[in-house]
Every structure is written in structure tokens, then in C-alpha cells.
Design brief:
Blueprint (H helix, E strand, L loop, with lengths): L33 H6 L160
Length: 199
């Protein structure tokens, strides 16, 4: 049986406490041919178990990754334009420089992820968990951040121009130098660093 987010199979490597990846019998750390594995995955990965997988620099545009478990995955420079990432787990993932233009991240979990320099233009991040993300110079322009939770996040110099931020919780976030011009809605900026923001 293939490992799924809600029904993961144990890694077949003796003594390993991790779960096997979807479409494999072993976890990423014990996978023999990682390149062949990633190349053969395709783009229909609903609820897939992809913990720690290295997708860096690959084209996953329009991929269906809804409900996928990609905790600590390497997605730096990955093209995820218009990808379906609803309910996906991206906690601790490396998304530096990733292109998430138009991606659907509704209710996705990105706690502790690094999205520095990532492009999230017109992305749907409603109700997403962005607690503690590193997001310097990330581009959220015209994104929908309704009820998202970027508390304690490092969002210095990030671009939120024209974004929908109604009920977003930026509590204790560092937004110094961020572009907040044209944002729509009332957000919670309690104890946030707003020094030098453009409004």
C-alpha cells in the first residue's frame, strides 16, 4: 500500500522509525535512487507522504498536492505556480525563491518554513498557518491572506501591496520595511514591528 498522509506505511529499513514515502518502501533518508523517485512521481499527489523530499528547482506548476505531507521538504526554487496545496503540511520546509504565483494554500501549514524571496503573487493563503515563517523579501502582492496566522514571522521587506489581509493575525511579526500599500481589510498587528513600512 502506498503511504498517504493519513495512512503512512513504516519505512522498510531495519531500525528506522520514519514512514515510507508515497510510491516507495523507504523514507527519503533510506531511498536508493532519489532522482528516479522524484522524476517518476508525476503531479497528482493528493495526500501523499513526501516528508523531506528534495524537489528543489523542479517544475510542479498546477500539481495537485492537496493534503500532502511535505514537512521539511526542499522546495527551494521550485515552480509551484497554480498548484493545489490546500491543507498541505509544509512546516519547516525550504521554499526560498519558490514560485507560488496563484497557488492555493488555503489552510496549509507552513509553520517555521523559510519562504524568503518566494513569490506568492495572487496566491490564496486564506486561513493558512504562517506562524514563525522566515519570509524576508517574500512577495505576497494581491494575495488573499484572510484569517491567516503569520504571527512571530520574519517578514522584513516583504511585499503585501494590494493584498487582502482581513482578520490576518500578524501578532509579534517583524514587518519592518514591508510594503503594505493598498492592502484591504483590518488585520491584527498587536506588538508587530512596523518600523519603516510603506502604507
Amino acid at each position: 500500500m502506498a503511504s498517504r498522509h493519513y495512512h503512512p506505511e513504516p519505512c522498510a529499513e531495519a531500525g528506522c522509525a520514519k514512514n515510507a514515502l508515497t510510491g516507495a518502501t523507504r523514507c527519503w533518508g533510506h531511498l536508493a535512487d532519489r532522482e528516479a523517485y522524484v522524476t517518476g512521481l508525476g503531479k497528482n499527489l493528493v495526500e501523499a507522504w513526501l516528508v523531506e523530499v528534495d524537489f528543489s528547482g523542479r517544475d510542479l506548476s498546477s500539481a495537485n498536492l492537496s493534503g500532502a505531507r511535505m514537512s521539511k521538504a526542499n522546495l527551494s526554487g521550485t515552480i509551484l505556480r497554480n498548484a493545489d496545496l490546500r491543507l498541505a503540511f509544509l512546516d519547516g520546509a525550504d521554499l526560498r525563491g519558490a514560485d507560488l504565483t496563484g497557488a492555493d494554500l488555503e489552510m496549509a501549514v507552513l509553520g517555521g518554513a523559510d519562504i524568503s524571496g518566494a513569490v506568492l503573487v495572487e496566491a490564496n493563503a486564506q486561513r493558512s498557518n504562517l506562524v514563525g515563517v522566515k519570509g524576508q523579501h517574500a512577495d505576497f502582492s494581491r494575495a488573499d491572506l484572510y484569517y491567516s496566522r503569520p504571527g512571530n514571522a520574519d517578514l522584513r521587506e516583504a511585499d503585501f501591496a494590494g493584498a487582502h489581509i482581513q482578520r490576518a493575525i500578524f501578532r509579534r511579526a517583524n514587518l519592518s520595511g514591508a510594503d503594505l500599500r493598498g492592502t484591504q481589510g483590518a488585520a491584527n498587528f498587536e506588538n508587530a514591528n512596523l518600523e519603516g513600512t510603506k502604507r
